[in-house]
Design goal:
Elements lengths: L81 E2 L3 E2 L203 E5 L2 E10 L1 H10 L3 E2 L5 H14 L7 E6 L13 E3 L5 E3 L17 E4 L6 E4 L5 E8 L1
Parallel strand pairs: 6-11
Antiparallel strand pairs: 1-2, 3-4, 4-11, 5-11, 6-7, 6-9, 7-8, 9-10
């Protein structure tokens, strides 16, 4: 044995598979010679071929991905990225990959307890599972499958094709019936808060009108117990607002038919029994018929504390040879107002004048108004008026003096007020 050169020397007994190799070296793992106790020895430091550097044959689980292996993590855990058989973890391998898969049943059946995507089944995964009627995999409630994985039906709260409404309940008494059509008058179901009745027919003369309202005098439908019903509240047409026909002597002036109506059928009081003015009752002379009187600019102004409605005040003025006062200038307006205030300092509750828009349906428009001149007919308002700001409005068809600043406003004609008549001298 040459010191420092040879590790051993057995002479003729040197052998690569012996105690001293032919190169006079002691046998070691990795020398490329298969020695007793070694499974293999390929003489290289590569752990990724068939023989490890420990001279053991490569096997699945040794921690080195050798030939035929997809991976080798050196453990027996099948819940990580490398499973039994040194295969890379994948959905369908029968092993649940922790953090990546929810389940893995090693089959391609979507409808069992684990989908082909290795997820637990749920509504919205596009797979119809047990207990689901459908599953289209989207979040729309307005197609052929709702978000609850139920087939759409009337009453599910979602408006589907063929439905006009769907409020999600079974009530027929709200805005949407349980057939998913909108509630409507005449459908036979009472729409609570909107309809007073609904008898499901087209008969206006029974206990429920075609407008789904309870019958009342003034609804325009002649019901049992009514002699007429013209659908308005006027007492100056052919049907009074108690649904009885207008007649001479009822105290209401029938426009275009009667000249007067003082509530009786007696003569000698200025209004004949046929409700025409008495031509034999001459207009009064002088200017002293009112509770207070004023002569100004060739006219007699007569103030009456009468508490009459506008129609009654008109008749009273005609009986005194004139008409409800006509005011056509600021000077006349101021004169009349001072006259009224001088008679009654507390005046302000309103005094009728002749201006009106009766029967025209446009009482909120200034140009709708005209002056009633009694037996002399009527006259348009003209270019001047003294309406208060915001007047006229839809309050009524007759006009009164109201405030101390001499302004006018419109009021319902049936209100009881003092009035002022005018008669030319």
């Amino acid at each position: 044995v040459r010191k420092g050169v040879e590790a051993c020397d057995a002479g003729e007994k040197n052998a690569d598979d012996g105690a001293c190799t032919n190169a006079c070296k002691l046998p070691t793992c990795g020398d490329g010679v298969l020695q007793p106790g070694e499974e293999c020895d390929d003489g290289n430091p590569n752990n990724y071929d068939g023989c490890l550097t420990t001279c053991l044959k490569a096997t699945c689980g040794d921690g080195f991905a050798g030939p035929g292996e997809e991976c080798d993590d050196g453990n027996q855990d099948n819940s990580d990225s490398c499973v039994k058989g040194c295969k890379t973890a994948a959905c369908g391998d029968g092993c649940v990959w922790a953090g990546m898969e929810q389940c893995d049943d090693a089959n391609k059946v979507d409808g069992d307890g684990c989908t082909n995507a290795c997820k637990l089944p749920k509504c919205g995964d596009a797979v119809v599972q047990q207990g689901e009627e459908c599953d289209d995999g989207n979040q729309s409630n307005f197609d052929a499958c709702t978000n609850a994985c139920l087939l759409p039906v009337c009453g599910d709260g979602f408006v589907q094709a063929g439905e006009s409404c769907d409020d999600g309940n079974k009530s027929n008494y709200d805005a949407c019936r349980n057939t998913c059509v909108p509630a409507a008058c005449g459908d036979g179901f009472l729409w609570i808060g909107i309809e007073a009745c609904d008898d499901g027919n087209g008969n206006n003369a029974d206990g429920c009108t075609n407008a789904c309202k309870l019958p009342t005098c003034g609804d325009g439908v002649v019901q049992p117990g009514e002699q007429c019903d013209d659908g308005n509240s006027s007492n100056n047409d052919s049907c009074l607002n108690n649904c009885t026909p207008a007649s001479c002597g009822d105290g209401w002036l029938r426009t275009g038919v009667e000249q007067c109506d003082d509530g009786n059928n007696l003569g000698g009081d200025g209004c004949l029994a046929n409700c025409q003015l008495d031509p034999l009752n001459p207009a009064v002379q002088g200017c002293d018929n009112g509770d207070s009187n004023l002569v100004w600019n060739n006219s007699c102004y007569m103030f009456f504390i009468g508490d009459l409605d506008w129609y009654g005040a008109r008749i009273k003025c005609i009986q005194n040879g004139g008409y409800l006062v006509q005011v056509t200038s600021s000077q006349e307006n101021a004169k009349v107002a001072v006259f009224l205030y001088g008679y009654n300092p507390a005046w302000g509750a309103g005094t009728w004048m002749g201006l009106n828009a009766i029967g025209k349906g446009c009482e909120a428009t200034v140009g709708c108004y005209s002056w009633d001149l009694g037996l002399l007919g009527s006259q348009s308002l003209g270019p001047w008026n003294n309406f208060s700001p915001g007047q006229p409005n839809w309050t009524g068809e007759c006009v009164q003096f109201y405030e101390i600043d001499y302004k006018w406003n419109n009021r319902p004609c049936d209100e009881q007020k003092d009035f002022i008549c005018e008669r030319p001298l």
